[in-house]
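Bench notes, afternoon.
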Amino acid sequence: LGTCFGASFNPSDMGMLLLQVSCLCGSAPCLLCGCCPSAKNSTISRLLFTFFLFLGTLVSVIMIIPGVEKELHKLPGFCEGSGSVLGVQTHVDCDSFLGHKAVYRMGFAMAAFFFLFAMIMVCVRSSKDPRAAVQNGFWFFKFLVLVGITVGAFYIPDGAFTSVWFYFGVVGSFLFILIQLVLLIDFAHSWSQLWLRNAGESNAKGWYAALCIITFIFYATSIAAIVLLYVYYTKPEGCTEGKVLISINLILCLIISAVSILPKIQDAQPHSGLLQASLITLYTVYVTWSALANVPTQTCNPTLLVRNSTGSAMATQLLTTWWDAPSIVGLIIFILCTLFISVRSSDHPQVNKLMLTEESTARVGSEAAAVESGLHHAYDNEQDGVSYNYTFFHLCLLLAALYIMMTLTNWYRPDESLRVLTSPWTAVWVKICSSWAGLLLYLWTLVAPLVLPDRDFS
């Protein structure tokens, strides 16, 4: 074997090959040392894990493209036994369900992958722990593990898998929506504080004008969207659920907007205002829209898609893809929130404690030392303590995988006869409850300094 290698490579080629192999099997700093100058080891590792998630998402998107979906029946055994529910064979033609099945199995593979690493990384305190080397290195082998889990997932027999995994997806998606809301509220507060600080330091009225313009745009968009929801998702007679849900969320948005500018709230939190409230209102309107798009009543939901086992579509227009407008917006929000989790920590200590990403003084010192030493490559900033909780990060990616699985399938599932993919009321109530939870969470951030005056909410 050594003779063969010697005949094939000269010493310089062999050295370059060994360097590349060591980077694939080694640490994140080695892997991306030329692409991320002066980057943190922790940041690069999070970005690479996020890349794995995005790669799985891309594969899922490709699998539900109509042309590709029709070819999935060529996978050996993928469509066989799909009509089996609790051991009862129903002899259903599953050709039109293949994209749905593929996305569920891809979601299962990604969730299993991140759950595995969440368990492995329990209680890792610093990069001196041997498990930290697994977190920050061996990327080629991690990719092989993900591929292996994915291949195995496509051989899972149907049985009750789709029905059971649907509820796992519902719970995981609800939790990830809550994480989205925490990040959105934190972003809104940071945005307002930054612009108000710039306005105070520069004495320029342009910052105040920008705040007013952005706030007006958010509220105008929200009002226009609410009007459209009443027009398209309600009827003069009937559609009571849609009318009630839209009205409740409209009233709640008015309440948080009024509370945000109360004198006592302004005294306790000078940076609170209508900018944050307008952004939360806009997101709440989006979640309401997404929920109404899952109402299973055709007369109250013009965007409802119902696909039967022969592949036909019953909707207001021909079904070309499984993506509707709420799903596309949800995909964009998913990408932004996942990147936000990966690349930065919050400006607010309370949020860092909640998301388990609080920076310690030791890590700040190591970062400063790296900059002073003139390093131009990724460096280990976790020798004295991790900059984020490894297990919690993987659990966040697990929830993100479940959320994108539900988003790409529009929260649809096969009915009891396995002949129609329909939208259940479960999806509607999960989304509506998440919007209420987000509004209550934002309201708590406003009133907490008054309710608990002895605590620091800076």
